[in-house]
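Q: Could you fold this chain for me?
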Amino acid sequence: MGKRLQESLSSQYFEAANKLNSKTARHRIVAYVESYDDVFFWRSVLSGLETPQVYFQVTLPSRSQKLERGKKAVLMNLLQERVGEDMIACVDADYDYLIQGATNTSKTILANPYIFHTYAYAIENLQCYAPSLHDLCVAITLNDHAIFDFEEYMRQFSQAIFPLFVWSIWHYRSPNYNKFTISNFLTVIELGNFSLAHANELMQRLRHKVARKVDMLKRQNPTARQSYQAVKEDLKRLGVTADTTYLYIQGHHLFDKVVVPIMNKVCSQLVKEREDEIRRDSMHGTQRRNELSCYSHSVTDITMMLKKGTGYTLSEPFRRIQADIADFLNKKFGDEKLSPPAESAG
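A: Sure. Below is the predicted structure, expressed as structure tokens.
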């Protein structure tokens, strides 16, 4: 396909291509995503919605368009005017969902029926879905010893940062967002070097830092009490709870600075346990060396496993994404009454 044709692709193009097929051929809907990392995630979203009549093809914009990586470039320079019933866009929500139309990009995402978003800040947040993390540790280390309560820790982390997160959204819904940026927010909630032995102390320090910053913001915005409360209530309406704030903060920070460091410590401990067990139970040196070598080759990379895990299919944001796309399909193929599965496979 020539460069000029690639750059002119639109929903109408794919609609015409579908019409050229026989009446029994499956209807193709092209789903454009932002980056290579997004392909697998959106495939996991769309697979459960395909039928014998319709299927999705997840792809990226053309080579020349991919040079401008990121949602804003994709939306504004490629898809905003060209998406439709046969070509949709699938993007990270970032803050655009939560700021509810405070920027042009946010307005586009909320208003365009052919642009679908993650609800959570990004796919990284869903890859870090707390109820899935123990199972991922088992997959990585082949050791099912639950030495750390991921769900409780992420709940405490979320509750600790929630008051400051509300201030972050409050600022981004106003013209004064630059007075408390996402970077400022992330600096405050930085956990530092994680240690299993000192996890509680790290959480206490985080609560102290957040409380100090919240007090400062209250002093800087003495008339914001009612508007802050309004934002807080609206966030709850949008699906954000104090227990799940981690799903809505910047995804790379959550992945790289919070979850991966915890996973590293937990998995290292689990690997050590398994290796000690092998050393203890081996009958002789040759068996020990063989068992340790076999085990070391079975241990999986943490980052890769997080990116390939699908435990997030049980999360509320994932279900909301599927419900949105099912609604889109029902409107397009009304007679078939398509709907997402009652429960996604974990």
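A (continued): The first strand starts at residue 27 and ends at 33.
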